[in-house]
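Objective 1.3, modelling of assemblies. Example input:
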Amino acid sequence: MKVVDSAALLVRSVPYGESDLVATFFTETEGRVGAVLRGARRSTKRFGGTLEPIHELVVRLEDRGRELCVLKEARIARPRQGIVSSLAAMEGAGRALRWVRHLCPNRTPEPRVWHGLRDLLDALDASREGAGVGVLLVTFGLRLLAETGYALDFERCARCGKLCPPGRPAFVDAASGGLVCMNCGGARRTMGGELRAIAARLSNPRSTGTDASELAAVTDAHASELLLIIEEAMAAHTDFAG
Ligand SMILES: [Zn+2]
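Predicted structure (tokens):
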């Protein structure tokens, strides 16, 4: 039997049997892990407030080599009251946690996704009235796709590799991995040159996506259009359904 102590985020919990819960955690050391919480519905004393998403937890899991671990202990290590008090931030955080649940495979450590998710939640926690939620989500979503092997290319045709000149509009097909040039059949959706440049910049892990000049350049309309493309890619590759 292995004992896992890790920082973790709750990404889902569902009732199980008479009195238990089955929770899905995204952990720092093991990636996504499912765990049984024995008696969690009979008594709220044992795990209490730790079973809310958003706050960063420290969990102890018992791994007996079965599909599900058993949660032995959980406590809140970093509360994020700022998210809880803003509907927009709350919805943004919930969306990011859902993405992670669908894109990250079981029991596979994803340290860069873990740190990206933690940074996103901290930024949402600090945002006033959920300002800038769209661009924060887009940045995380693009990098999550890249980290899990589904990077979107906004500069070259995803089929033949031909460079699309900067500033020009292009066809984009999220399921194919980004731009699709005319010779390769094009796509139903197009995106303008400005939006392509924004998407390419936010996809770059060296840009933080949160500095003031970048935030200011991304309008809500840009963010909504990119979120649509991101979630189309997720739906094409996983059981994510939006
Ligand atoms: Zn092509």
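The domain at 82-237 is CATH 1.20.1440.120 (de novo design (two linked rop proteins)).
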